[in-house]
Write a structure and sequence with these properties.
Strand content of chain A: 15-25%
Number of helices of chain A: 16
Distance between the termini of chain C: 26 Å
CATH architecture of the largest domain in chain C: Alpha-Beta Complex
Largest sheet of chain C: 7 strands, mixed
Strand content of chain C: 15-25%
CATH class of the largest domain in chain C: Alpha Beta
Distance between the termini of chain A: 11 Å
CATH topology of the largest domain in chain C: 2-enoyl-CoA Hydratase, Chain A, domain 1
Largest sheet of chain A: 7 strands, mixed
Number of helices of chain C: 21
Number of domains of chain C: 3
Oligomer: heterotrimer
Chains: A alpha/beta (405), B alpha/beta (313), C alpha/beta (526)
Shape of chain A: globular
Radius of gyration of chain C: 22 Å
Shape of chain C: globular
Helix content of chain A: 25-40%
Radius of gyration of chain A: 20 Å
């Protein structure tokens, strides 16, 4: 038997969350969250390559909050299987030997449930190592689920135990704290984002958002790409400091961003009727690291013609006129790949591999010390905190299932 | 936008600050260091024309009949003599009276027949009655005062204009209330106006107001003191008579009336013919004796057997 | 009869003083002993304006009469000051229009065909047709504007600029080509304050950035002490050097006018008067205006103030050779504005009103408010500053009007980006001035919209360089804390708080001087 937080199907809650969740997060963490603390049977493993793990720390990601508040597009309803235990940012230890790994080994999970985990013939993407693009995420011997933490059968990090396939596991180096390891998954996504951004030498980049996604993307852009100026849009005071540490050249407030980009790029600013102003000219690459309509439109409006807009957050509906008119490349980045290509053309390394290097950098180590963790039974507080993380000066909020009895 | 509560409290604090800063209800002051830069003071006399317009006349009628008269009668007793002369002349005239108390003005006005009273204005010292708006409004409204300058400056409204409009004037030629109840010297003002505008002067003498309410007292003494008032024959400047000569005649007429009031008409006439009318400025004795004598009210029983039918009240 | 200005010492008889603060004013009880500097009352206006203009044009100083300078076939250019003066805008008819009409009448009589009228707005925003019309009058506007013979000067139109060489100090002189190539350039000015006019008219009003940068910079401005006194102003020295070169190229016929201090029309007449002389009516209108403002929405407040038109009287009009004319003009200006003040004080208090030269029909953003207080009012002295070196300046302004995107686009960026980095005029000039001056979008907006030039906010910051250099502490009473902080200043809610904050620099019982401005004054500090 084990404790876990379980997301279940509840039409009224989902509707309520969708209606008011964005405005009143209190309702979300109170009544409207389709989440409950339950006692489940411990998972059983009966297939090769799979093992049981004990969750040590599991982060609350923006996409989790989106799912709980019903903000996520129904598009994704086909690739999850309710009810499930959320938590795809997971640091766990093996409860039993798994292939070459001995019981007790600390691992982080690449949450994507690929062909390998599902026991089917590798699809084209998986063969190429682009596991995040796997096209078999609904079939095989697992219920549909794009990732661990969205699938009924695997469990997730928000429970005391879960199961994972050997292909998902990345061993945590000796001497790392759990908190530091927890940042590995979001960092690897950021690595993927940065490499998908296609930044040319000395290219100007705008990162809209300075939450964990934005900050890590900034770091990865600075470390892995030849980006020149990186302007980060930050709402809150402490985010400004962090963004500068993570490699931003400039940090601006949301309502300043267009003017600042205009000024530094010498662009022309136009003001259409009844809508937001936009630039003719602007940055080479803009990264939307929030996933809100406003953030995405800022990114679209501040990018030069022929530039690239990278969707790093789960995107909201936005006016795509700029993408058409300015011939923008709108690029999605989802999770991380096992075969990343560096700007130098050098390939073959996985995003987790690259992220390991970033996670050892000083700003990340410092940041990992600020991770706020909650036991499972205090999940309402945890969600509340995660919702207001930016304002409260926290970057990452996590569950620590071990401390729940 | 401010809330109504905030607005009210801000308004109150503004008003408080202004009332203090600009000394509302008191004299405005000039900062010491600004005094050299202040323009020579213009006469700050409040206009009184409005008080001779119809709405003010109506308001005054009400104030006098319903307020002043009952109050006045409740505090003092009056005896009025010589009103018959008013039947023989037409206005406007100048009533020239001795001045001993603030009771003089209501006494004269309330002694006049109504049709005369409604057309009579009182000359009042501009520097006292017209330097604050509330005193100006109050005195104009109740007593129909208009400002004259006792130092001889020019005024917004001149007495001549008031006369020309057909108003009779009450003038106290002494210019100020007596300190001891005896009559002081007369200034030329009344004589000058009569001379200039060709209106007769009606001498008026009254006694007892000093005894009832002397200078410095704000309310008549208790016990319904007796006041007497006597109107005399109208005087006009003779052919070729100068103002300088006419003024003493007015004073003599008032003195004679006072004498008459104290004794009888016949005795007073004889003393006047003999040039023995008692000096209205009083005997040259110690000050306390002068005051002592004046502080006694005229006794209503002093003249027994007086024919009451000739008097009003 | 107008009374001279004087210095009041606040005593227990002194009523509260009006202190302007943006779109409003407050009544302030200053500590006893505070010196309050009052400008002279309005000088008498000339009885017949048209006659005065005729007389000036026919009897110029050091020049032939204007009709003698006009001949058929010549190129005549008339330049005139833009809407940044007078403040507030003059009630129609504007004096410039009346003079231009007189000049044009003479030109028509002489048979001059080639006439152009140029608003000498330098890097200021282009004026709208309505604003131009207000200045030149309907008749002139109708005759010249439709053909494009009446226009705003464009300092970024490279084809229409002429480089006249350099001064002996190596300063470029680049002015309007049309003006430079005219047979006669008539300049019609309004000498509102002592810094206007003289060689500043043509040399600055019709100059481009290339020319302006030589004197509009932090270094020159720190040494302009003050720019209300051209003999002690580095900026004016530079303009004078340029003016003398310009004089060699083009014949300039300067017409300068001086106005009296009749700034506030009814019902704001009480703002013209000395407080202890307020009648009951003045007090009532003050209260009514103040209460009205407290409930009026910002838009209405803005309209109430910006619709105000002043009923200035003309005190003098002089024409002829630039320097001779300016001499005469300054005498009049000083007679109207100068107040003798003996000695400096520890604290200088000034109320920043709703209007400065650069927010006519616009909004007073924090940078303009700072420029108004620390640039114009602080510098409104002759001799030495009213406040001692290292003293404190206390200003009144809410700093909350925000930025007008149409008129001041570069100000927003200056405020958000440049001031966030540094508030030191020399440092920001060094690092950012070129970027802003050459930004194509700002140039585009300056040329086609109604925006101040990209470099203009830097000039505002240079204006205050002398004040920043001189004073130790700047505190805004009633100011928005964040805006004051961004500019490197502090904010206090009341004068008492401000005095307390300043006590570190000036002690607990400092000497205080309050400049009762507007109406305009010039403190002659001995």
């Amino acid at each position: 038997m084990m404790l876990a937080l379980e997301m279940f199907r509840s039409l009224p809650r989902t509707v309520a969350g969708k209606a008011v969740g964005a405005r009143m997060p209190g309702i979300l963490s109170g009544f409207a969250a389709p989440l409950r603390l339950v006692t489940l049977d411990a998972p059983v493993v009966d297939r090769p390559g799979w093992a049981r793990l004990k969750s040590r720390l599991s982060g609350i990601c923006g996409s989790d909050l989106g799912a709980l508040s019903g903000q996520t597009s129904l598009y994704f309803s086909a690739v999850v299987s309710l009810p499930f235990v959320p938590g795809h940012e997971v640091v766990a230890e093996l409860l039993e030997d798994c292939d070459d790994l001995a019981a007790g080994t600390r691992v982080v999970l690449d949450p994507v449930l690929t062909c390998a985990a599902r026991g089917v013939e590798p699809c084209e993407s998986c063969v190429a190592g682009h596991t995040n693009r796997c096209s078999r995420i609904t079939v095989g011997h697992l219920s549909p689920g794009l990732q661990t933490g969205f699938c009924r059968d695997t469990g997730g990090g928000w429970g005391q135990q879960l199961t994972a396939h050997r292909s998902q596991m990345h061993v945590v180096p000796e001497g790392w704290s759990d908190d530091q390891a927890l940042l590995l998954e979001p960092l690897s996504c950021a690595v993927h984002t940065a490499l998908r951004a296609g930044v040319k030498p000395n290219g100007r980049v705008l990162v809209s958002g300075a939450g964990s996604v934005g900050l890590f993307a900034t770091l990865a852009l600075r470390q892995l790409t030849p980006a020149g100026e990186i302007v980060v849009v930050a709402k809150h005071g402490h985010q400004r400091e962090l963004a500068l540490e993570f490699g931003a050249t400039e940090v601006v407030l949301p309502d300043e961003v267009l003017r600042r980009v205009r000024r530094t790029t010498g662009a022309f600013q136009l003001k259409p009727e009844f809508s937001a102003p936009y630039l003719l000219g602007g940055v080479d690459v803009a990264v939307d690291a929030v996933g809100s309509k406003q953030s995405l439109e800022t990114a679209l409006n501040a990018t030069r013609a022929g530039g690239r807009v990278v969707l790093s957050g789960m995107p909201a509906a936005a006016d795509l006129s700029a993408a058409w008119f300015r011939e923008l490349e709108v690029v999605g980045t989802y999770a991380s790949s096992q075969q990343e290509t560096l700007p130098s053309g050098e390939g073959g390394r996985g995003a987790f591999d690259l992220a390991m290097e970033l996670a050892e950098l000083e700003p990340v180590v410092q940041l990992s010390k600020t991770v706020a963790s909650y036991p499972l039974h205090r999940w309402r507080e945890a969600l509340d905190h995660a919702h207001a993380a930016g304002r409260l000066g926290t970057v990452k909020v996590a569950f620590d299932p071990r401390s729940s009895q | 936008m401010t809330s109504p509560v905030r607005f009210v409290s801000d308004t109150r604090s503004d008003l408080r600050q202004m009332a203090r800063g600009w000394r509302w209800g008191r004299r405005s002051l000039v900062p010491r260091s600004a005094e050299p830069y202040v323009l020579p003071a213009k006469q700050t006399v409040f206009p009184s024309d409005w008080s001779r317009k119809r709405p003010a006349i109506v308001a005054r009628e009400v104030a006098q009949k319903a307020g002043l008269e009952p109050l006045f009668r409740s505090q003092v007793r009056t005896r009025v003599e010589g009103l018959d002369i008013l039947d023989r002349i037409e206005g406007p005239v100048i009533f020239a009276a001795n001045h001993a108390s603030h009771l003089d003005t209501p006494l004269i006005l309330l002694s006049l027949p109504d049709e005369w009273r409604r057309r009579t204005a009182v000359a009042a010292a501009a520097d006292y009655f017209f330097d604050t708006w509330w005193r100006a409004v109050g005195s104009s409204l109740i007593f129909n005062t208009f400002p004259i300058d006792r130092r001889g400056g020019s005024m917004a409204t001149t007495p001549g204009e008031v006369l020309a409009d057909g108003w009779s004037l009450v003038i106290f030629p002494e210019g100020t209330r007596s300190k001891d109840g005896w009559m002081g010297s007369f200034r030329m003002g009344a004589a000058f106006l009569a001379h200039e505008h060709g209106v007769p002067v009606v001498p008026v003498a009254h006694r007892g107001t000093f005894a009832a309410m002397p200078r410095g007292q704000g309310w008549p003494s208790p016990g319904r003191r007796q006041l007497t008032i006597r109107f005399g024959e109208p005087l006009s400047p003779l052919e070729g008579e100068s103002v300088r000569d006419f003024a003493p005649r007015i004073r003599a007429a008032v003195a004679s009336l006072l004498d008459e009031d104290r004794s009888t008409w016949w005795e007073a006439r004889r003393r006047a013919a003999a040039g023995a009318t008692p000096d209205p400025s009083g005997p040259k004795v110690a000050q306390w004796r002068r005051v002592w004598e004046q502080s006694e009210s005229p006794d209503q029983d002093q003249l027994p057997g007086r024919v009451r039918a000739w008097s009003r009240r | 009869m107008s009374r001279p200005g004087f210095v009041l010492e606040v005593d227990d008889r002194t009523p509260p003083m009006v202190v302007h603060e943006g779109l409003g004013f407050r009544l302030e009880n200053f500590p006893l002993g505070t010196r309050v500097v009052y400008p002279p009352e309005s000088l008498p206006a000339v009885p017949d304006v048209d006659e005065a203009i005729q007389h000036a044009l026919l009897n110029p100083h050091d020049s032939e009469p204007l009709p003698a300078l006009l001949r058929a076939g010549m190129r005549l250019t008339i330049a005139f000051d833009d809407l940044s003066i007078p403040l507030p805008t003059m009630r129609a008819p504007d004096i410039r229009g009346r003079i231009i009409e007189a000049v044009l009448t003479m030109a028509a009589d002489a048979g001059v065909d080639d006439v152009k009228l140029i608003a000498a707005n330098a890097l200021h925003r282009r004026m709208t047709p309505a604003e131009l019309k207000h200045i030149v009058g309907e008749r002139v506007f109708r005759s010249f504007y439709p053909q494009g013979d009446l226009y705003n000067f464009d300092a970024e139109d490279r084809d229409e600029l002429a480089h006249l060489g350099t001064t002996d100090k190596g300063e470029d002189i680049e002015i309007s080509k049309r003006a430079a190539e005219s047979d006669l350039l008539v300049y019609v000015n309004v000498n509102l304050v002592a810094m206007d006019g003289g060689h500043k008219s043509v040399g600055i009003g019709l100059a481009s950035y290339r020319s302006l940068r030589h004197h509009h910079n932090a270094k020159t401005m720190v040494h302009s002490r003050s720019f209300m006194d051209h003999k002690h102003s580095e900026m004016h020295h530079s303009a004078w050097r340029m003016g003398r070169v310009i004089k060699d190229t083009v014949r300039v016929f300067q017409i300068e006018t001086t106005l009296n201090n009749d700034v506030f029309p009814q019902p704001y007449g009480f703002l013209q008067k000395r407080e202890w002389e307020w009648s009951v009516k003045d007090q009532a209108s003050m209260l009514a205006v103040r209460r009205g403002l407290s409930i009026a929405p910002p838009r209405l407040k803005h309209k109430m103030f910006h619709d105000l038109r002043s009923v200035y009287g003309l005190t003098g009009v002089n024409a002829g050779e630039v320097e001779a004319v300016h001499q005469k003009t300054l005498e009049k200006v000083h007679a109207q504005h100068s107040v003798e003040v003996s000695g400096q004080s520890d604290v200088l208090v000034m109320g920043v009103p709703y209007l400065g030269p650069y927010n006519v029909n616009s909004s007073m953003n924090p940078i303009l408010a700072a420029c108004m207080g620390l640039g114009y009012y602080f510098n409104s002295y002759r001799g030495q500053p009213v406040v001692r070196k290292g003293g404190a300046v206390i200003l009144y302004h809410p700093l909350n009007e925000g930025f007008n995107q149409l008129h001041h686009p570069s100000y927003v960026d200056f405020y958000e980006e440049v001031l966030a980095e540094s508030t030191n005029p020399a440092v920001v000039g060094e690092k950012f001035e070129q970027q802003f001056a050459q930004d194509p979008w700002y140039i585009h907006l300056y040329r086609t919209s109604h925006a101040y030039h990209g470099v203009h906010p830097f000039y505002m910051w240079y204006w205050i360089a002398h004040a920043l250099d001189h004073v130790g502490d700047v505190i805004w009473v009633g100011g928005d804390r964040r805006a004051a902080g961004r500019m490197g200043f502090r904010a206090a809610s009341t004068l008492q708080d401000a005095m307390e904050m300043a006590s570190g620099a000036v002690g607990t019982s400092p000497s205080i001087t309050y400049l009762h401005n507007p109406p305009h004054l010039l403190a002659d500090v001995r």
